[in-house]
Amino acid sequence: MREKFIEFRNVSFRYGDNEPWVLKNVSFDIYKDEWVAIIGHNGSGKSTIAKLMNGLLYPQEGEIIINGLPVNDKHVWEIRKFVGMVFQNPDNQFVGTTVQDDVAFGMENRGVPREEMILRIEEVLKAVRMEEYRLTEPHRLSGGQKQRAAIAGVLAIKPEVLILDEATAMLDPRGRKEIMQTVAEIQQQSEISLITITHDLQEVVKAERVIVMNNGKVWDEAKPREIFAKKDELRKIGLDVPFVAVLADELIQNGIMIKNEPLD
Ligand code: ADP
C-alpha cells in the first residue's frame, strides 16, 4: 500500500466572509511517489489548492494533512520545508545573479553547509539538464530554461513534493515539452511526489492520476485515459481533449488500433 502524503478532507475555502466559496467540500488523497495532475478551466480553484498545500492560505472548513501534519500555524514552517513550488512566471522567481547563485539561495536560507551546497548544485542542474548554464545570468535564459533553473532551485532544498502551478503556461510548445519531460524524469528517478496544475489536458497524458476541478468541486478523479474517454463532457466544462487522444480513440473505434495498446 502506498503511503498518503497529502490529504484534503472536506475542504471549503473562500477569500473573505462575503466572498463566494471557491472550493466546496473538496476531498482527495495524494500518495508518496505519485504524479497527480490537477486540471480545470480558469477560475476552477486550482491555484487556491496549490496555496492551501503550503499554508499560504488556510481553509475555513475541513482539514488538510501533509506528511501526517495538519496544516496550521504550528506546523506550517515544518511543512514548507518539504513542499517545493514552481509558479507560472519564470521572471518572478530569480534572486541570484547567476543560475548557480540562484540555486544556492534556498539552501543558504536553510543553512546547508558549503560543501553540500556545491554537490547539490551539480546534482540538481544535471537533473534539469542545465549544467552548462551554471554561470549564466538568469535573464539570458529562454522561458523554458528559466523554469528548469527554478525547478533546480526547488529540488536543491530536497522537497518531498514538487508542485508546478501552471509552470508551463507562459512557455512556447517546445519549452512546455522540455519542462514536462524534465519533471517526468525527476519523478521517475526519485521518491518525490509530483503535482502538476494545469488547464491544458495535453499535460496530463503521463500523470498517473488526474483530478479534474470544476467550479470549486472535484468533478472527477481517474487515470488520464479514463478522463480522455469523457471528451464530450470535458468540453462542456471548458477542457479540450488533446488531438492525439481523440485520434487514438477513433483508431480504436475503427479497429485500426487495439485497445489497451499504450498511447505513447
Ligand atoms: P484557477 O487556478 O483554477 O484559475 P483560482 O484558484 O486562481 O483558480 O481562483 C478560483 C476563484 O477564486 C476565482 O473565481 C478567482 O477569481 C477567485 N480568487 C482567486 N484569488 C483571489 C483573491 N486573492 N481574492 C478574491 N478572489 C480570488
Automatic annotation (TrEMBL):
Gene Ontology CC annotation, any one: ATP-binding cassette (ABC) transporter complex
Instruction: State if Translocase is listed as a keyword.
Output: yes
Keywords associated with the record: ATP-binding, Cell membrane, Membrane, Nucleotide-binding, Translocase, Transport
MF terms in GO? ATP binding; ATP hydrolysis activity; ATPase-coupled transmembrane transporter activity; cobalt ion transmembrane transporter activity
Signal peptide location: none
Predominant location of this chain? membrane
All residue ranges annotated as the ABC transporter domain in the record? 6-240
Per the record, membrane topology reads:
Peripheral membrane protein
Protein's name in the database: Energy-coupling factor transporter ATP-binding protein EcfA1
